[in-house]
Specification:
By secondary structure, this protein is α+β, with helices and mostly antiparallel strands. It contains nine helices and five strands, in the order H-H-H-E-H-E-E-E-E-H-H-H-H-H. It starts with a helix and ends in a 6-residue tail after the last helix.
Amino acid sequence: PLSMNQRKHPRMNSRLILLTLVAAASATLAHAQTFCSVREPNRVIHEMFPDSTGFRTDILEITRENAVKLPADLPFVFDRREITRHPLHVVVRRGEIIGYVQARTQATRWGLTEFVWALDARFNLLDFRVQRSREPGAAELGSSKLGASLRGLSLPDVRRRWSQAWIEELQARSGLPAEDRQLVEAAVSAGAKTIWLATEIWQLPAR
């Protein structure tokens, strides 16, 4: 119920309602940003593309219609929270596009793990970072040789190789224990999802 003061001052009451709506919208935006954005993009992009001279950020959207187009043989699914807009960083060197960087989130044993994947200009896997994770092996994964093992693979390459035997091989080759196998699978899935979105949904041209 309205207080006596609010009944006397309806304009003030309207302002309070407006402020509440703005705060709620800001909280929603902040949640969406933490789910799908690269933190500190300047630093991360410089690490992944040390010879870059800049980048631009395109805002692209995943719709429900996009999500249902997912072929059954791809090793990932979409979380309902991914049905939203996503920033894609387009990395350039003296005006020429040399790659792409995007954050992708995958479900792992202890919750959601955020990866940042870099693709080359032809949409092949280049490198990744673990941005946020509760997994005990996340730090070891981020400093492992997994990125080097995947470098240069295209989406068809990942689809041809995909099997539990391949994931086990990648885990062993990266020097990671067996309990981190699901984390390895999540990293590869996030990279494949990044390529699929760029090429099949957003239909960006290869350079």
